[in-house]
Specification:
Elements lengths: L8 H11 L5 H28 L3 E6 L5 E4 L1 H7 L3 H4 L12 H13 L6 E7 L6 E12 L2 E10 L1 H19 L3 E6 L4 E4 L1 H7 L3 H4 L14 H14 L1 E9 L5 E12 L5 E10 L1 H15 L9 H18 L2 E9 L2 H8 L1 H18 L5 E6 L2 E9 L2 H16 L2 E3 L2 E3 L3 E8 L6 H18 L4 E3 L3 H19 L5 E10 L5 E12 L3 E3 L1 H10 L3 H21 L6 E5 L10 H12 L6 E6 H4 L4 H13 L2 E7 L6 H6 L2 E6 L1 H5 L5 H17 L2 E4 L5 H10 L3 E3 L9 H9 L4 H5 L2
Parallel strand pairs: 16-17, 19-21, 21-22, 22-23, 23-24, 24-25, 25-26
Antiparallel strand pairs: 1-2, 1-5, 3-4, 4-5, 6-7, 6-10, 8-9, 9-10, 11-13, 11-16, 12-13, 14-15, 18-19, 18-26, 19-20
Helix pairs in contact: 12-13, 13-14, 18-19
The structure holds ligand C2E.
Ligand C2E binds next to strand 19, helix 17, helix 18 and strand 23.
Keywords: c-di-GMP
Protein name: cyclic-guanylate-specific phosphodiesterase
EC number: 3.1.4.52
Length: 724
């Protein structure tokens, strides 16, 4: 629409003149023209006024909502030229709920009232949506109904409100506790999490000083440094001890910030914090686990080394001595193997408790693993003090413990090293205490010994022996000897037991007792055991093909060999290679192995049975046997330990044990072999008692192949004895 102000005077005149029909020129000029001129000017001023208004003004037809007129602010707000606004309907111009507004205006007018209606509408004008605060009113102009809409851009306010709402939501729902303080640090607002963490309700704490929540554990220096950081950076973060309403002290992680006004004056404090007690507990638990033995809860090797290092440092500084006690439990393995790991574990815990209970709190009791404990006696006055402690521990640890109906007792072997005299670093001290302990074991256990320098020589020898053993197979230094077993029922040679010998280049013949434990410890027994089995199977096949077609073979298997997944494959392949029938092979295992509940062992025992191999229990009667195991496992033979055979003629107890084992085997349909038969009388006694086989020096020592063949083919051989 053309504005009146834009028309030049002449044109305006023409226009007005044409409109005024029937008035004479003169009369018009005289009577109406000044009046008209005045009205037009007013109209023009009014128009300019509307256009100057910052608010949008729309005149819309009702009920259609078509814009009849609009001011400049409307065009600007709608982001359209004015003539793009006029003539358009409100909904087309992007007004949300235009229909509702129009209906309300019509309704209001119809009901006789015409109050202003307030609406907040969204306006989809241009790219960015805007918001308007609308004041609407219906107006009847000369009988025609119009709507007058005054609108103010509320986009910024709506956005600010929405931001505020969001902030309020975040504040309320935050899992972190939030406290807002005024410029003097008095609480003016808290959120729900604050209430949940501290136990205080909102109303209780309003106006409290913020420092009321900090525990008195902190010294003034702590607050000083926090204040300095706040001053410099407007924020501070750190760990803090706080106190809940129930007086519980707990750790929290706090972020404190300052809010300043435009002149830089502190207006508010905002404290955001989270309860980190759980995290701290977890950290402490992990820390504890990393430094303590899982089973006994005692310090582990890491912590032990740490304490040992500290003792060494103080010893260097102030010259005080301390003692390292290396404690190993005698024959613990037998208990573990025979009664199971559960009983073994409980015994270890009981020993740990006893050690802890008998020593000073300043001393360290650690578990190295297995049945080894280490005690650090800090600051000792002299050797007599250590002797007194060792004697006390010897008697305390050997007191019996009662578990699940078993009365168990173990004795300790204790090796002592004095720091820093016997070593200036932790490794050396531990090694020397270990060496001393080893000497106790060799001397017969259940005692203590101080480290001496000569002990080192012995250990070096052992290490050398282990090194040599590694090469023994490839250097062809090993040999299988065979010891005959006599059939006591029919006479004659029933079987041979394969027994390993080592021809050491410097030491000469080394017996198994001196190297099998080393081989087991280093797991060298696995390849060596395989070599023995293959060699013995080949030899048996040769003998069976020749002079002794009925001969059987007994081979020792170490528990360590049962820990290799390939054991069954190795046995099968040794049999296949030699062409032997599995029934002729007897594998000797210890009683303890049957009590080993490890899957690998149980599976291997079952597989051996399935193959048809006979299992023989070596040294029967010396371990913690349970008859249940004899039933449960595919045992075919018991070997009476030679300690019972040795004195059976003199000792009624030993004779009774031999009789009982023979009777037991009879009932369970097992074969019995008596070991260590050295006298003809023993042999006769065993035969009388119903023992199936005998083995011992009387019938032949373990021998090389040649020696055995010579011995058994001679007149004084086993056969002649057997027929005696
Ligand atoms: N005093 C006395 N002793 C007798 C008599 N008859 C036999 N012996 C000895 O008793 C041991 C019997 O073997 P073991 O109980 O299986 O005990 C064996 C066995 O447990 C182990 N061993 C030997 N060879 C092997 C092997 O190839 N593998 C494994 N894993 N262990 C083996 O070493 C142990 C000791 O073997 P050796 O020194 O050969 O000792 C042999 C044998 O020489 C006797 O009448 N009187």
């Amino acid at each position: 629409m053309l504005k009146l102000s834009e028309l030049d005077d002449e044109l305006l005149w023409e226009l007005q003149r044409n409109r005024i029909i029937g008035l004479g020129e003169r009369s018009f000029r005289k009577n109406y023209y000044p009046q008209l001129r005045c009205s037009l000017s007013r109209l023009e001023r009014f128009r300019a006024l509307l256009d100057c208004a910052g608010e949008m003004i729309l005149l819309v037809a009702l009920p259609s909502g078509q814009v009849i007129d609009a001011n400049a602010a409307a065009a600007e707000l709608l982001d359209l030229p004015l003539d793009g606004v006029i003539g358009q309907r409100l909904d087309v111009l992007g007004f949300s709920h235009a229909e509702v507004i129009l209906a309300e205006l019509v309704g209001e007018q119809a009901s006789g009232g015409s109050p202003s209606l307030h609406h907040e509408v969204a306006l989809q004008a241009g790219d960015a949506p805007r918001h308007l605060d609308l004041v609407c009113r219906a107006a009847d102009l000369d009988g025609v109904l119009y709507g007058v809409l005054l609108g103010r851009d509320a986009t910024r306010r709506v956005a600010a409100e929405s931001r505020l709402r969001l902030a309020a939501r975040v504040f309320a729902d935050s899992a972190e506790g939030i406290l807002v303080g005024d410029r003097r640090g008095r609480v003016v607002e808290i959120n729900h999490a604050f209430e949940a963490i501290t136990g205080y309700a909102r109303d209780e704490v309003m106006g409290w000083p913020m420092h009321a929540f900090v525990s008195s554990r902190h010294d003034p220096g702590f607050f000083r440094s926090a204040r300095q950081a706040l001053k410099a950076d407007n924020s501070w973060q750190g760990e803090l001890w706080s106190q809940r309403k129930n007086r519980e002290i707990y750790p929290l992680w706090l972020s404190l910030s300052l809010i300043r006004d435009h002149r830089g004056r502190v207006q508010n404090f905002v404290a955001m914090f989270s309860d980190i007690s759980e995290r701290k507990e977890n950290e402490a638990r992990i820390q504890h686990m990393a430094h303590h033995d899982f089973l006994t809860g005692l310090p582990n090797r890491f912590l032990l080394i740490d304490r040992l290092t500290q003792l060494l440092a103080t010893a260097r500084r102030d010259g005080r001595r301390f003692a390292v006690l290396f404690i190993d439990l005698d024959r613990f393995k037998t208990i573990n193997d025979s009664l199971g790991h559960r009983v073994g574990d409980r015994l270890l815990c009981a020993i740990g408790e006893r050690l802890r209970g008998r020593l000073r709190t300043s001393d360290t009791v650690a578990r190295q693993g297995g049945d080894e404990f280490i005690v650090l006696l800090s600051y000792i006055e002299g050797p007599t003090e250590v002797v007194r402690v060792c004697n006390m521990l010897l008697s305390a640890l050997s007191e019996p413990c009662l578990f699940e109906g078993h009365e168990l007792s173990v004795t300790p072997s204790i090796g002592v090293a004095i720091g820093p005299d016997d070593g200036t670093d932790s490794d050396t001290l531990l090694k020397h205490a270990d060496l001393a302990m080893y000497q106790v074991k060799r001397r017969g256990r259940n005692d203590f010994e101080f480290f001496r320098n000569e002990m080192r020589v012995h250990v070096t020898t052992l290490l050398q022996l282990e090194r040599d053993l590694r090469h023994a197979v490839e250097r062809d230094e090993l040999e299988v000897f065979y010891q005959p077993q006599m059939d006591l029922r029919r006479g004659g040679l029933a079987a041979v037991e394969a027994l390993l010998r080592w021809h050491h280049p410097e030491r000469g013949l080394v017996l198994p007792g001196d190297f099998i434990p080393l081989a087991e410890e280093s797991r060298l027994i696995v390849p060596i055991g395989e070599w023995v089995l293959r060699t013995a199977c080949r030899q048996l096949a040769a003998w069976r093909a020749g002079q002794w077609p009925e001969l059987r073979l007994a081979v020792n298997l170490s528990p360590v060999q049962f820990q290799q997944a390939e054991l069954i494959e190795v046995v099968r392949s040794a049999l296949d290679d030699s062409g032997l029938d599995p029934e002729v092979l007897e594998l000797e295992v210890t009683e303890g192995l049957l009590m080993d509940n490890r899957d690998l062992t149980l599976q291997a025992l079952a597989d051996l049975k399935a193959m048809g191999i006979r299992l023989s229990i070596d040294d029967f009667g010396t371990g913690y046997s349970s008859l249940v195991y004899l039933k449960r496992f595919p045992v075919g033979q018991l070997k009476i330990d030679r300690s019972f055979v040795r004195d059976l003629l003199e000792d009624r107890g030993d004779a009774a044990i031999c009789e009982t084992i023979i009777a037991l085997a009879g009932h369970l349909d097992l074969e019995v072999v008596a070991e260590g038969v050295e006298q003809v009388e023993q042999l006769d006694w065993l035969r009388e008692a119903g023992c199936d086989r005998a083995q011992g020096y009387l019938l032949g020592r373990p021998m090389s192949v040649d020696a055995l063949e010579r011995r058994l083919s001679g007149d004084a051989g086993l056969l002649s004895l057997g027929s005696a």
